[in-house]
């Protein structure tokens, strides 16, 4: 059963990637995407890192966006 | 290399910038104007975080980034974090007096009708991060990083390595990452033995350790000219000391009033002193998925993020984060931000315990914590950021946000103000 689940998951990922081939833009259509504000994870400068630090010390959840990095004794 | 060639042969500022933008990789750093190509980009910020009646933090950060001729990139970051104020010690809020020992064991304090706070909260944290990314084929890049963080009672060392793989004409990027972190905890006054009465000061000398291993898999996908999407899966496994050495759990009677330590044969230090040290599991496995969308309207940009986390402590959480950047003339922008967070409590969370429950916990060596951050919690943050970007790519911004926490206990009711000034320049 577990193997079947894994197989389904792998097929789903491969299927999604195959689907991705039909998405996207040509290199000359990247005018908007090339702006810093369109870069996931880096669009807001240091805001995300500072927010992650605040919420890490106030909530039970961290991670997801990237690695924690740097650690903290506050939780 | 391609960028340099284009610039040489075409010798047109606008065209070169356009081509640089066109060849910019998906996960790479923002394309910089021509005159900043050889410069270091510095992002600096000072965060001022202030909770009503509790913690105040001032956090200056500076980050330098440089892209080299071979398209490799180096990033260095230094963070200083100064904390002062008071934090919840874990005990219930009661109209009966409660007595606590300070973390160092040197003194006692009494609280009535208020959320019990330990006001000896004072710390300075220094953190340094380094990340280097380098392409080794046309579509593959590797990245490696080091992290160091130190505060009075805590030291953390971390390293990470990752692979970035561009597919589908750079419209898809796959990210594989591994990280390891080694933490050393050296609590003030020693590490308490969990489930013992704090009046006994039953603590062990020496340091405690924790290690964290992270795995990250990410897909970044360009949907169309205006829309980019990122999906991450993060597995985090930590082993070792997870207990908060400064938190207690109140032992209460049938009316919910704090009991006396002496009735359990422990030392008497005052009224309502039946407070035991908390105890958490020695491992934690977290699974998180994160989904981010960025959509570019004619001028404005909408960013929507969602995260789901679930762990083997029984906690699950949802986070929604929405930003809308309104772009004005002359480089000015206004960016409202709303964040909503909701978590369910850990299996071992109790606001307080009865004498019978304490006996059961001690007999079964089970865990318990009254830390409100492990209880049911709903947080909301709303605010805005206003910024101005100059033609030379310098940027100045101000962020003001209101953060509110709310949960099952009085201790979870918290209001804070987040203020941040940011400045980006090239040098």
Automatic annotation (TrEMBL), chain A:
Record domain DUF4266: where: 25-75
UniProt feature coiled coil, ranges: none
Signal sequence region: 1-18
Superkingdom of the source species: Bacteria
Keywords linked to the UniProt accession: Signal
InterPro entries tied to this protein: DUF4266 (IPR025362)
Pfam families (UniProt xref): DUF4266
Keyword Signal carried by entry: yes
Keyword match Ribonucleoprotein: no
Protein name: DUF4266 domain-containing protein
Automatic annotation (TrEMBL), chain B:
InterPro entries: DUF3570
Keywords in alphabetical order: Signal
Signal peptide, first to last residue: 1-33
Listed name of the protein: DUF3570 domain-containing protein
Species: Alcanivorax sediminis
Organism lineage: Bacteria, Pseudomonadati, Pseudomonadota, Gammaproteobacteria, Oceanospirillales
């Amino acid at each position: 059963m577990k193997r079947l689940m894994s197989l389904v998951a792998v097929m789903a990922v491969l299927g999604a990637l195959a689907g991705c081939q039909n998405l996207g833009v040509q290199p000359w259509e990247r005018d908007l995407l090339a702006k810093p504000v369109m870069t996931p994870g880096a669009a807001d400068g240091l805001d995300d890192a500072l927010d992650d630090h605040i919420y890490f010390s106030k909530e039970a959840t961290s991670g997801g966006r990237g690695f924690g990095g740097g650690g903290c004794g506050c939780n | 290399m391609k960028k340099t060639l284009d610039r040489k042969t075409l010798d047109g500022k606008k065209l070169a910038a356009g081509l640089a933008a066109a060849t910019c990789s998906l996960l790479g750093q923002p394309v910089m104007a021509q005159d900043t190509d050889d410069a270091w980009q510095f992002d600096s910020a000072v965060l001022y975080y202030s909770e009503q009646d509790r913690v105040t933090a001032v956090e200056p950060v500076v980050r330098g980034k440089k892209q080299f001729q071979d398209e490799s990139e180096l990033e260095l970051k230094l963070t200083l974090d100064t904390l002062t104020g008071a934090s919840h010690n874990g005990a219930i809020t009661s109209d009966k007096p409660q007595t606590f020992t300070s973390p160092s064991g040197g003194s006692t304090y009494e609280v009535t009708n208020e959320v019990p706070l330990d006001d000896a909260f004072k710390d300075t944290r220094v953190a340094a991060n380094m990340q280097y990314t380098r392409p080794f084929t046309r579509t593959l890049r590797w990245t490696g990083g080091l992290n160091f963080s130190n505060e009075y009672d805590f030291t953390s060392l971390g390293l990470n390595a990752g692979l970035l793989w561009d597919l589908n004409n750079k419209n898809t990027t796959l990210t594989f990452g591994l990280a390891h972190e080694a933490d050393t905890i050296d609590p003030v006054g020693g590490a308490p033995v969990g489930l013992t009465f704090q009046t006994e000061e039953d603590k062990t000398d020496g340091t405690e350790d924790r290690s964290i291993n992270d795995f990250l898999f990410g897909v970044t996908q360009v949907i169309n000219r205006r829309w980019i999407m990122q999906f991450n899966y993060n597995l985090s496994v930590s082993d070792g000391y997870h207990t908060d050495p400064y938190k207690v759990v109140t032992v209460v009677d049938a009316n919910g009033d704090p009991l006396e330590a002496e009735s359990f044969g422990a030392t008497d230090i005052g009224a309502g002193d039946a407070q035991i040290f908390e105890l958490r599991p020695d491992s934690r496995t977290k699974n998180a998925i994160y989904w981010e969308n960025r959509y570019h309207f004619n001028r404005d940009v909408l960013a929507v993020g969602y995260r789901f986390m679930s762990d083997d402590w029984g906690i699950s959480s949802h986070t929604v984060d929405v930003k809308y950047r309104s772009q004005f003339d002359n480089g000015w922008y206004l960016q409202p931000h709303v964040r909503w967070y909701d978590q369910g409590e850990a299996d071992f969370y109790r606001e307080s315990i009865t004498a019978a429950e304490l006996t059961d916990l001690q007999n079964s060596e089970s865990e318990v914590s009254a830390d409100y951050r492990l209880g049911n919690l709903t947080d909301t943050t709303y605010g805005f950021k206003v910024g101005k970007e100059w033609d030379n790519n310098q940027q100045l911004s101000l962020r003001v946000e209101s953060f509110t926490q709310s949960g099952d206990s009085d201790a979870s009711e918290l209001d804070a103000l987040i203020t941040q000034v940011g400045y980006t320049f090239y040098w």
